[in-house]
Design brief:
Elements: H1 29-41, H2 44-54, E1 62-67, H3 72-83, E2 89-95, H4 101-114, E3 117-122, H5 125-139, H6 142-161, E4 163-168, H7 172-175, H8 188-194, H9 202-215, H10 219-229, H11 231-236, E5 241-243, H12 244-247, H13 252-262, H14 279-290, H15 296-305, H16 310-316, H17 323-337, H18 341-354
Length: 356
């Protein structure tokens, strides 16, 4: 039996979260899904064994490639792969059109310190503008466009350079923000495949993701993603897509401490998302449309993990957007992608009013 509670009795998810359901005790379907795999997520001895098995190189030029934004998480992953696991790694950075100078400075410094090869993956500017204009106009979120571009790069790049695996640095809260027993999350197959001994053919997993993404864009854009952004993956065969923090405990403070002690990486302007020059604008748009903190699902995962209490989660839900800065960044995005700022903001406000 399921009832339509307003807020989960265990986490902080409420009915504004897409595809949510509640059981007779008022516990949300995302909590139920987490419980179904939580024992696997915290069995770090077995996870380490699985990780070592999945990063075993079978004659490729590189042991791994890492998507490197210059942020603390991807910097930490790159550092650990090189220093702890001794892997031959080539890092890459997707230039999404809004990379900050601070991010580039940190990226260039760290790859030099670690002695790893690195490449900026630069998309054709017309593709970037087309993607942003379509996604922002339809879904009111530039982050969706950036995610699609990022996934395409992470699928394609290891095949392009002949790396055995692609390793990313998303945290468990980021990976599992939409994880449900029902198939409503295109990232779910990646998580489940990562937790079993024998992985599926990566091409099969990617086909599921690409199929979902293709349904969210028009035919012309879907064709561009397949024919341009994924060309090497189709030509050279797909490689596994591995989340470092699916196998290793995520502790933000410990990550920063280790980086500060062993590298030049420091918290300077901001701790999170300093790499994107439109982050505040994007978050403001998402908060406006959702009529609450867009980070609610991630905060709920933190509560399930036990890294914060429910009371702390409720406090973190309080938004404190810098509206002036946010609007400045939204206008930058609109100018770049030839979007009407006035129409976009009107649509966002109308959508927010009609949401529930």
């Amino acid at each position: 039996m399921r009832i339509n509670n307003k807020v989960c009795t265990r986490c902080v998810n409420d009915k504004t979260v897409k595809h949510i359901h509640f059981n007779k005790d008022g516990v949300c379907s995302f909590c139920e899904a987490y419980d179904s795999i939580k024992d696997k997520l915290h069995d770090y001895e077995n996870l380490e064994r699985l990780f070592l098995k999945k990063i075993k190189n079978s004659g490729h030029r590189y042991d791994a490639t890492v998507g490197f934004s210059g942020g603390k998480d991807s910097t930490y992953v790159l550092y650990k792969l090189v220093k702890q696991y001794g892997l031959k790694v080539k890092a890459f950075t997707l230039d999404n059109g809004f990379m900050s100078p601070e991010a580039k400075d940190k990226i260039n410094a760290i790859v030099k310190e670690l002695g790893v090869e690195h490449e900026y993956v630069v998309c054709d500017n017309s593709i970037l503008k087309k993607m942003y204009k379509y996604i922002v106009s339809r879904y009111l979120s530039p982050c969706i466009a950036c995610s699609f571009l990022g996934y395409a790069a992470m699928i394609n790049y290891p095949s392009k350079i002949d790396a055995a695996v692609m390793i990313h640095g998303r945290s468990i809260p980021q990976m599992m923000r939409s994880y449900q027993i029902a198939d409503t999350d295109y990232f779910k197959p990646m998580i489940e495949d990562g937790l079993v001994e024998d992985s599926k053919d990566p091409a099969e997993l990617y086909a599921q993701m690409i199929n979902v993404i293709s349904k969210l864009v028009d035919k012309d854009l879907a064709k561009t993603i397949k024919d341009v952004l994924l060309v090497d993956g189709y030509k050279n065969g797909s490689r596994p897509f591995i989340g470092y923090f699916l196998y290793h405990k995520y502790d933000k403070d410990a990550i920063i401490k280790e980086l500060v002690e062993n590298t030049s990486w420091r918290v300077t302007s901001e701790e999170e998302h300093f790499d994107c020059m439109i982050h505040h604008g994007a978050l403001y748009l998402k908060n406006l449309v959702a009529r609450r903190s867009h980070l609610m699902p991630e905060i709920s995962v933190q509560i399930r993990e036990g890294t914060i209490t429910r009371e702390e989660g409720l406090e973190k839900l309080k938004t404190n957007d810098d509206v002036e800065l946010a609007n400045k960044e939204i206008k930058m995005l609109c100018d770049y992608a030839s979007i009407s700022y006035k129409k976009l903001m009107l649509k966002a406000k109308i959508y927010a009013k009609r949401w529930w």
